[in-house]
Amino acid sequence: MKIDSGASRRDILKKGAVFAATVAGPAAASAYVVPDLPYAFDALEPYIDAPTMKIHHDKHHGTYVANINKATEGKPEKPILDLMADALEATPVRNSGGGHYNHAFFWEEMAPFSQASKTKPSAALEAMINKSFGSLDEMKSIFAAKAAPGAVFGSGWVWVCVNKKGDALDIVGTPNQDNPLMKGVLGEVAFPIIGLDVWEHAYYLNYQNRRPEYVDNWWNVVNWDKVNSNFDYVTKNHSGVPVKG
């Protein structure tokens, strides 16, 4: 094959690059992304401050997403929920994948006080709360105890979960970025409907070492409409709640 002497080397290289891209197909996008918040960074104030929300969302969650993308590069893409069950078998998935799922779950269950204060547990959820704990106030009291520094030492999460049978709620703490969907974290898998981040980065700018105050105030921005949706999904599907990103 003769090359046209009038063609520049740049033209030849450009055509070669186009051909190579066509053969190889489009470049793969990152499998996971940090989802946008469904509210402004300052929308949860005064209970969670804007600087904390921005750092927590953009930097901390962003790091988990970057690292889970590195850990799964070249592998078939799966929803992050699908990686949770066997996450303990692979440390990067356990830490970074758990971090991505947990935070994506966390952002969606909150709303500005003006919105959250108008929501409440559905009749079905309220009935299971009363069956499992006696009352909503008692559930919050148990939750606070499970979230205390002595209960979740260092970094971790506290969850309200539907049990595997789907007939009761339980409150559990998990270390680091573990969650109840991961086989081996608890005695049996459970399905979260509420989750609270008690890592210091979630509250320290505003509350310093006053984690119990953060936990108590956090209920002011819990969006019960979303929690009700989580509860309905879990009890219907006996599966974890899918998340964005």
Uncertain ranges: 1-28
The biggest beta sheet is recorded as: 3 strands, antiparallel
Strand content: 5-15%
Q: Spatial order of the strands in the main sheet?
A: 2-1-3
Number of helices: 9
Helix and strand content put the structural class at mainly alpha
Succession of helices and strands:
HHHHHHEEEHHH
The total count of strands amounts to 3
What is the typical, i.e. mean, pLDDT? 90
Cα-based radius of gyration, to the nearest Å = 22 Å
Inertia-based shape: globular
Give a brief rundown of this model.
Helix content is 44%, strand content 9%. It has 245 residues and is mainly α.
Question: How would you explain this protein's 3D organization?
Answer:
The chain has a three-stranded antiparallel beta sheet, with helices on both faces. It starts with 8 loop residues before the first helix and ends in an 8-residue tail after the last helix. The radius of gyration is 22 Å and the shape is globular. Helix 2 packs antiparallel against helix 3 and helix 5 crosses helix 6. It has 245 residues and is mainly α. Helices cover 44% and strands 9% of the residues.
